[in-house]
Design a protein that fits this description.
Rossmann fold
């Protein structure tokens, strides 16, 4: 996968069906057995995901973890972007301030003057 400007999380939904023997047997009979969470996580990470989380809206399993991971990843990614912007601006002119823009508000952009 090439360079990208976003982070993403792969989410496995309906993890509660892993506990349903009828559904598990049905999938196996169709020749489509469920993979383990570890297999899905490995696949997600190999394809550039920042994380893999299995959750269930019915049982609420891992919902909080999913949102915490999303917030943590977004914050980390934004901090890295800001540091790169400051480094690029400093290398270019040495006068840019991190997080400043023409309107004077803080954000992910900076103005090099």
């Amino acid at each position: 996968m090439g360079a990208r400007n976003t982070q993403f999380i792969v989410v496995g939904t309906k993890c509660d069906i892993r506990d349903n023997a009828e559904i598990v047997a049905e999938r196996e009979a169709l020749g489509k057995p469920m993979k383990s969470p570890e297999e899905y996580k490995e696949l997600a990470l190999q394809n550039g995901a920042a994380a893999y989380v299995e959750c269930s809206a019915i049982t609420r399993v891992n919902l909080e973890t999913l949102f915490e991971d999303a917030i943590r990843i977004a914050r980390t990614f934004n901090e890295v972007r800001k540091k790169k912007a400051v480094a690029n601006a400093s290398a270019t002119s040495g006068t840019a301030k991190a997080g400043s823009n023409a309107a004077g508000s803080s954000g992910g952009c900076c103005v090099v003057s």
